[in-house]
Amino acid sequence: MADGDHATEPMPEDAAARVDRDLIARAYKKLVNKEDLTKPERAALKRHEREKEEHLRWQHYKAIPQKHWRKMSGRQTKVLNEQAARYGIPFGGAHINLPNVVRALHDFLAENAYKLARDEDDLMQGAGSPALERYREERAAIAKLDRLQREQQLLPRDEVREALGRVAAILRGAGDSLQRQFGSAAVDALYEALDDAELELDRFFGKRDSGEADGRS
């Protein structure tokens, strides 16, 4: 399996997926019968639609037509094939696998980081002011983060959010058992706590994502 394909490879069904499958089936049945959905059913249906959209998006990423790539890059096929061969970045051929291109591009940048900085960044040369030293420290920190991610010591935040969402789905699935044993008050308390947890995650990750976007603008 290629590294760029890991995001789309089907995973074995776990407890969270089984819970969601049952909730989604009930939700669709209720929609057909024009019945109200419970909170867990609405949440599961929303996750299902989001995951379906994500799956289709990755399928498109992996099969970009060459004519679209030519239009986006502003380069002719001959030039693209020459660049692909010279730099080892796979954007030649009839279809472009974008995840593979992105991985190859960032591997190329990481492997040539020192040369690129030395040749193109005058601020990396010689002695400088405290501000220049801070700039160089930031460059070193970015290089370290890139290395850690390539060594799989860092996890992308979207994968962390997905894992936490699956944990929440498992807990929501336990709501039926709680209701049978302790009544509706117990399950309502559980769902309320999970809703609060999801809001807190959205605030945390949303704030971090917004901060990164501001930093890039």
**Beta-strand residue fraction:** under 5%
In the sheet with the most strands, the strands line up as 1-2
State the distance separating the first and last CA atoms: 36 Å
- Helix count equals 10
Helix content percent band: over 70%
Shape: flat
> What's the number of extended β-strand segments?
2
Overall average pLDDT: 76
Multimerization status: single chain
* Broad structural category: mainly alpha
Instruction: Please outline the major beta sheet.
Output: 2 strands, antiparallel
What radius of gyration results from the CA coordinates? Answer: 24 Å
Q: Point out poorly predicted stretches.
A: 1-11, 212-217
The succession of helices and strands, N to C, reads HHEHHEHHHHHH
Summarize the structure.
This protein is an all-alpha fold and 217 residues long. The protein has ten helices and two strands. It is flat.
Task: Give your account of this protein's structure.
- With 217 residues, the protein is mainly alpha-helical.
- It has a domain at 15-58.
- Helices cover 74% and strands 2% of the residues.
- It contains 10 helices and 2 strands; from the N terminus they run H-H-E-H-H-E-H-H-H-H-H-H.
- It has helices at 15-32, 39-61, 66-73, 77-87, 98-111, 113-120, 130-150, 157-173, 175-182, 184-216; strands at residues 64-65, 95-96.
- The chain has a two-stranded antiparallel ribbon with strand order 1-2.
- Helix 1 crosses helix 8 and helix 8 (157-173) packs antiparallel against helix 10 (184-216).
- The radius of gyration is 24 Å and the shape is flat.
- The two termini are 36 Å apart.
- Residues 1-11 and 212-217 have low confidence and may be disordered.
